[in-house]
């Protein structure tokens, strides 16, 4: 892979909170900017808002063309007019997480006050960006929701790290969450998942272009290390069955290093199609994602542990909750396996919460929540529709409303 | 991690075959040196030899202190006097695979004839080492076995890549294998396993100290890339349950980069115990293993496909076989899952082979075959003992014999 200079920057819609947010680490991070997108119309009663929380490498462009990659929104299958999260009925909000790199305050943001550089060209935070937790992400989203004039979310929905945010929303602001849909997630990050994240980080640290996190000084980015991290992570998002179905053992001529004829047995010549696919995943990822954000956000996932402040009792944060939960897992997900969703369900049950649980049969692995799974779509559509009845939402709430921003 | 210079070299016992081996790629690799160790005594009838095949990063030091690491042999639990592979009864052979780095011919060996350097200081093969297959490894072991004066092996035993060699032995030299014990293995390398290997290779390629494979010229080795490869691979050798049992979410103060006080939330300070463990696995591995060997051997695994020359019919290589098979898998092994062992068993059954199959209940993952699993030990002991009766081996064969080398 050639050396890649920093990704192009684009303008994002955002809200700035000058007073900032007090983080779990004790630091007051100020100012905090949160980049976001909305879809649909906020009802007059301001009661039809759904907050969608994105996963590790997702962003706010949930249901529209991505301004950097030109690809469709990451959940455009799920969010839109007539879709399971129906923007004809609901006002959908999605924001880039704190610590991210798509317009929200993160390691690439200018460091105020104490940083180096001149006032005209302040240095980025880089590795001095304070440590962020999933709850810190939720705290900043809470600011945004209030800023949009919303006192109570109809629902919070998200998969993977997005599902961790859903759980933290229900735990931290229970009165603001009517319904919660944590998908393919867990109440804590497992030792195995911490281990995978650590390998990702070591791959980035090992890249000489990381320069101790100060890569902005060189104009290059740690593209090779970040690509290795992404390639490894991508395997964990799929399943053995899905990889076998998609690629099997098919070979494609490559010859990118030796010039040997196609079809000959060689160590560096022909490659398997699955390898070509992974290399593509790695090389496209580094053009849109910041390495220091990757470090910050993977660390936030590692610290996720809903039982930590409750002597390991995951029911602790949910005692007395009035939120309706729909917990969803996928049968072939080995990164956030069904057993971890069951821990959530059992904890919510011990807390006497209103909880439904569905394990969707799928061979697509963890990424199933982003892919075409009709049974999953029906589950989300049905739960949200039924919950909307319980919430007393008008069937056409959005059409009676006014847009909030 | 500090820059590490090349690992110290030690003397190994070996046999040299000047005429070399004709490889699957068509190249005649000559000379070929195979480093090996033996344990126990060859019987007078030369009928009690067991060949043990090692896995990706194993070597010939199966049942004695390793000369580089000072650690016990990698299968000393299984091989020795009175142990499941009983050296009081059997003559045990284990050789370093072709392409390896513990004395057998591999990328670190001097390149004859056409290489650069002077005759006094020939260059190593490096990335010009010819591509090796599992069958090529077996061909070179076949030379060694013949060299030791053995016309028929009582048994060939191995786990993981060692199990692939067991299958290739039975397929290539059926008349020379009385019994075969392929453990935690597969008749082909799956798309997911190729994908993991590819990430390992990319991690090595990304290390600037790899220098396009010519790292011997600099005195440094691609330690960071190789460590990342090892860390990732190590996760795949364990299981979520084993990692949770061993490490859970326990944190240990580290502060290796920031000097922050222990116990504070920070991105680069305290680390989870599982991270510390993985870092240790990575840093010790690079002191004993050669990066170009890692590339060569992972590629050999990727090419493993017993069905390739039989239109995808895995029974093809085994039609008419007289070998007795004992196929063993572990319930929590997700790298070489039981489903892949079942493919072997079904193929052997279609070939009307004598085959037993045991799935051992274990939460230790793929590495279970290297760890304390009494049920596994009993299975190997029982099968070998029973097969020895069928083979008409004396109960004390070794004590009547003479050492072969």
Automatic annotation (TrEMBL), chains A, B:
Pathway: Amino-acid biosynthesis; L-methionine biosynthesis via de novo pathway; O-acetyl-L-homoserine from L-homoserine: step 1/1. Keywords: Acyltransferase, Amino-acid biosynthesis, Cytoplasm, Methionine biosynthesis, Transferase. GO terms for molecular function: homoserine O-acetyltransferase activity. It is found in: Cytoplasm. It catalyses: L-homoserine + acetyl-CoA = O-acetyl-L-homoserine + CoA. NCBIfam families: homoserO_Ac_trn, PRK00175.1. PANTHER family: HOMOSERINE O-ACETYLTRANSFERASE. Belongs to the AB hydrolase superfamily. MetX family. Transfers an acetyl group from acetyl-CoA to L-homoserine, forming acetyl-L-homoserine. Homodimer. This is Homoserine O-acetyltransferase. It comes from Acetobacter conturbans. The lineage of its organism: Bacteria, Pseudomonadati, Pseudomonadota, Alphaproteobacteria, Acetobacterales.
């Amino acid at each position: 892979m050639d050396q890649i200079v920093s990704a192009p920057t684009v303008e994002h819609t955002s809200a700035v909170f000058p007073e900032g947010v007090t983080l779990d680490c004790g630091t007051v991070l100020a100012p905090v900017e949160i980049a976001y997108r909305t879809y649909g119309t906020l009802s007059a009663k301001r009661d039809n808002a759904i907050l969608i929380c994105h996963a590790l490498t997702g962003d706010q462009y949930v249901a529209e063309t991505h301004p950097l990659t030109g690809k469709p929104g990451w959940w455009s299958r799920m969010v839109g007019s007539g879709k399971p999260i129906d923007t004809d009925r609901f006002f959908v909000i999605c924001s880039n997480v704190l610590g991210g790199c798509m317009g929200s305050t993160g390691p690439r943001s200018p460091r105020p006050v104490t940083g180096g550089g001149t006032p005209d060209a302040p240095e980025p935070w880089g590795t001095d960006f304070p440590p962020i937790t999933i709850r810190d992400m939720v705290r900043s989203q809470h600011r945004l929701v209030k800023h949009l004039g919303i006192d109570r979310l109809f629902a919070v929905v998200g998969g993977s790290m997005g599902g961790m945010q859903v759980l933290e929303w229900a735990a931290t602001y229970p009165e603001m969450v009517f319904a919660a849909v944590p998908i393919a997630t867990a109440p804590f990050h497992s030792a195995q998942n911490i281990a995978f994240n650590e390998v990702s980080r070591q791959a980035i640290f090992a890249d000489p272009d990381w320069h101790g996190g100060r890569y902005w000084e060189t104009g290059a980015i740690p593209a090779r290390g970040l690509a290795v991290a992404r390639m490894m992570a991508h395997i964990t998002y799929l399943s053995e069955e899905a990889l076998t179905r998609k690629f099997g053992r098919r070979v494609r001529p490559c010859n990118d290093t030796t010039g040997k004829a196609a079809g000959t047995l060689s160590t560096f010549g022909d490659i398997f199609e699955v390898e070509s696919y992974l290399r593509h995943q790695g090389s496209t990822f580094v053009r849109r994602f910041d390495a220091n954000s990757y470090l910050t956000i993977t660390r936030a996932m590692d610290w996720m542990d809903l039982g930590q402040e409750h002597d390991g009792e995951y029911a602790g944060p949910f005692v007395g909750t009035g939120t309706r939960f729909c917990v969803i897992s996928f049968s072939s997900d080995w990164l956030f396996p069904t057993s971890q969703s069951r821990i959530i369900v059992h904890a919510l049950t011990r807390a006497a919460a209103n909880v439904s649980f569905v394990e969707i049969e799928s061979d697509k692995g963890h990424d199933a929540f982003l892919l075409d799974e009709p049974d999953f779509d029906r589950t989300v559509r049905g739960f949200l529709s039924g919950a909307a009845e319980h919430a007393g939402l008008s069937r056409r709430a959005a059409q009676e409303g006014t847009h909030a921003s």
